[in-house]
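Please decode residue identities from the backbone states below.
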């Protein structure tokens, strides 16, 4: 675990000292003399007619004759390229598919494109939303696009599209979801031009070379390294003084830590901005930033709890002075507009912080509608500060003038690891609003979990390489076997980015592929052999009838759910009960707290026990062959059952032991699983009809968002 600069506990006493030095009790806003010129450049650029950057025009030219990979800093204008490329296809009466990794981003682009091309010409497919699916312009998530490619392969047809755009294409290297991006690139017919929009990555030409090898058409790389708004890094001394973080030598093209910052770091017992186990005085920090016109700002904190607790430390109203009275009035009116139809948001416990201090907490534990409210207010320039976890850096578009680092590491879902260059540049990409700022700032604050030297190093670091994350799972195996014979699948897997990296002997490719070029094929055969032994496939490579319908279960545990259907275990006549049982398959919790059986409805307890008992032998067969088997937990089932039978949201939150955002995600993922069951209407018509009713029961406010807010 990456943790640096660990301090000892503070001694009790009047002066509130630590064993390592004085703890700053009051920050006095000051600025190093060397910042005078930089701060004088703060302001709003003069309005002028939009003029495309050369890289944007080159990309538009490239996609007309080849595939194109655009790699550019966040906020550089990649969406403009997509918009113009779609416009050209649309003018020729063609069809475009725009895929993004996040539902929130897809929703945002849907409304953006609807305003440009007209609502009748744009559709959205995210699982949660299915509107105008036959429109000439489709916006959706990458998983939906991948599933459409599966369907096209099954039917022997080509995807109905004349252009595919993959936004956030660097997700190809995402450990959890990169496989979806790679599958799309492998399966997409070469006749369809592919436009990839990515943050800056180190091996763009390597990815282009791989695409050329599998699609037999050139992929032109358009690289833009210049930020649209220059970035200036700062250091906040615990005294309240702002200093340049680094000194840049233009001739030597290197970066060194500013001497006064270096002197601070070299002290044996440097003063602290806060007790090592407490949050810093955010209200005072905001005062410093406000004095030097560095707001609005996004503070990146290490946890959801820190984001929420930070609000309580902001006790100074920063928007009450007369100069900002107009903005205060606009903020108040906008809040009224956005919360008018949502009583839960209107009475949200954190709303007072927005109203009185123009600050908010944004993280995945918050309700979707609450996060949307914050995103709108921040984008419209009505908030001073948002406290957010690092996940907000990817995919959500609300830049600020300044971003503030308090940690040099990031939790990846398993452990804390040092920020890499891609993560760092994604965060700093939010600093400086194009058309609204002449300059953006990144402020580093010293503390227990902050390695200032690492941050300084990352400022001029080269972007990280993207490596293959492809892996075999049962959903992929079933869907490939529907369309291809095993020998064809072997050839298909040889087209993976992983195989390309090995062939090129690229240093740094994923370890499992370094050791065994045949790994993917061997792992596919391991899955295939299990399907044969369990009756979902036969030795000649064909799927049985069970295998064919099971291929439509494009979920995390398709075989477990398929086996439940084969054994007739699911309560297919009770919508609330079916939703509850499905929830036990989607939850990713690590353990299940003991629940008093008296609190559990008898029919739910009976249904869950029946599933658990009768699927145990099959789960053991999976585990014995080395496949991951997630245990089934009762609390998610009880939670969704309470929600499905109409219990109030607050009561369901209490039952779930979850944060509201996590509960909303459980509902959304349960609904997604139910949609896959709904797709089995030809084989299991009763279950499909019941799942439709289950979805209606659980997909209601506050889980669903009123997109009219946009």
């Amino acid at each position: 675990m990456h943790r640096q600069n660990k301090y000892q506990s503070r001694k009790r006493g009047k002066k509130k000292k630590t064993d390592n030095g004085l703890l700053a009790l009051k920050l006095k806003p000051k600025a190093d003399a060397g910042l005078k010129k930089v701060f004088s450049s703060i302001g709003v650029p003069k309005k002028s007619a939009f003029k495309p950057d050369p890289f944007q025009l080159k990309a538009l030219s490239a996609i007309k004759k080849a595939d194109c990979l655009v790699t550019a800093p966040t906020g550089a204008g990649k969406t403009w390229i997509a918009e113009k490329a779609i416009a050209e296809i649309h003018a020729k009466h063609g069809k475009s598919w725009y895929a993004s990794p996040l539902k929130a981003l897809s929703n945002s682009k849907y409304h953006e494109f609807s305003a440009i091309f007209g609502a009748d010409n744009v559709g959205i497919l995210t699982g949660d939303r299915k509107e105008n699916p036959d429109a000439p312009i489709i916006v959706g998530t990458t998983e939906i696009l991948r599933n459409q490619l599966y369907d096209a392969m099954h039917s022997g047809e080509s995807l109905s599209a004349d252009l595919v755009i993959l936004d956030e294409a660097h997700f190809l290297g995402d450990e959890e979801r990169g496989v979806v991006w790679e599958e799309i690139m492998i399966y997409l017919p070469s006749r369809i031009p592919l436009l990839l929009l990515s943050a800056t990555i180190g091996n763009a030409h390597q990815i282009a070379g791989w695409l050329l090898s599998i699609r037999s058409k050139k992929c032109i790389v358009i690289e833009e390294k210049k930020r649209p708004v220059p970035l200036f890094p700062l250091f906040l001394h615990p005294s309240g003084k702002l200093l340049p973080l680094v000194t840049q030598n233009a001739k030597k093209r290197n970066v060194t830590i500013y001497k006064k910052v270096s002197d601070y770091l070299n002290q044996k017992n440097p003063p602290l901005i806060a007790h090592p186990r407490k949050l810093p005085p955010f209200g005072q920090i905001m005062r410093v930033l406000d004095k030097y016109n560095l707001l609005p700002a996004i503070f990146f904190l290490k946890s959801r709890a820190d984001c929420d607790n930070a609000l309580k430390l902001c006790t100074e109203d920063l928007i009450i002075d007369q100069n900002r009275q107009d903005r205060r009035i606009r903020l108040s009116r906008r809040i009224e507009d956005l919360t008018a139809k949502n009583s839960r948001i209107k009475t949200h416990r954190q709303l007072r912080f927005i109203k009185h201090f123009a600050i908010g907490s944004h993280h995945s534990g918050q309700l979707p509608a609450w996060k949307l409210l914050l995103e709108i207010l921040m984008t419209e320039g009505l908030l001073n500060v948002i406290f957010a976890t690092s996940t907000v850096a990817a995919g959500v578009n609300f830049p600020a003038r300044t971003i503030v680092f308090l940690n040099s590491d990031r939790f990846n879902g398993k452990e804390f690891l040092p920020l890499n260059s891609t993560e760092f540049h994604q965060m700093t990409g939010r600093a400086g609003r194009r058309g609204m700022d002449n300059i953006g700032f990144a402020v580093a604050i010293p503390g227990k979990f902050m390695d200032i030297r690492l941050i300084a190093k990352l400022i001029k670091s080269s972007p990280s390489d993207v490596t293959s994350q492809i892996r075999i799972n049962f959903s992929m195996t079933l869907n490939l076997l529907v369309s291809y014979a095993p020998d064809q699948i072997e050839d298909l897997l040889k087209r993976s980015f992983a195989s390309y990296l090995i062939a090129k002997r690229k240093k740094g490719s994923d370890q499992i592929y370094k050791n065994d070029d045949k790994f993917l094929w061997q792992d596919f055969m391991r899955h295939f052999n299990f399907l044969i032994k369990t009756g979902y496939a036969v030795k000649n490579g064909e799927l049985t009838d069970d295998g064919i319908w099971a291929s439509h279960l494009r979920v995390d545990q398709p075989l477990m759910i398929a086996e439940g259907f084969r054994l007739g275990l699911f309560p297919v006549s009770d919508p609330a009960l079916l939703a509850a049982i499905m929830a036990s398959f989607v939850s990713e919790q690590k353990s299940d707290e003991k629940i008093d059986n008296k609190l559990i409805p008898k029919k739910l307890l009976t249904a869950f026990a029946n599933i658990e008992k009768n699927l145990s032998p099959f789960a053991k067969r999976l585990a014995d062959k080395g496949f991951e088997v997630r245990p089934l937990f009762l609390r998610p089932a009880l939670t969704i059952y309470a929600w499905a039978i109409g219990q109030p949201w607050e009561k369901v939150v209490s039952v779930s032991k979850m944060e509201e955002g996590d509960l909303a995600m459980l509902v959304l993922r349960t609904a997604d699983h139910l949609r896959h069951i709904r797709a089995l209407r030809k084989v299991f018509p009763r279950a499909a009809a019941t799942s439709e009713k289950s979805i209606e029961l659980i997909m209601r406010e506050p889980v669903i968002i009123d997109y009219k807010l946009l």
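Observation: The domain at 474-709 is CATH 1.10.3380.30 (Sec63 N-terminal domain-like fold).
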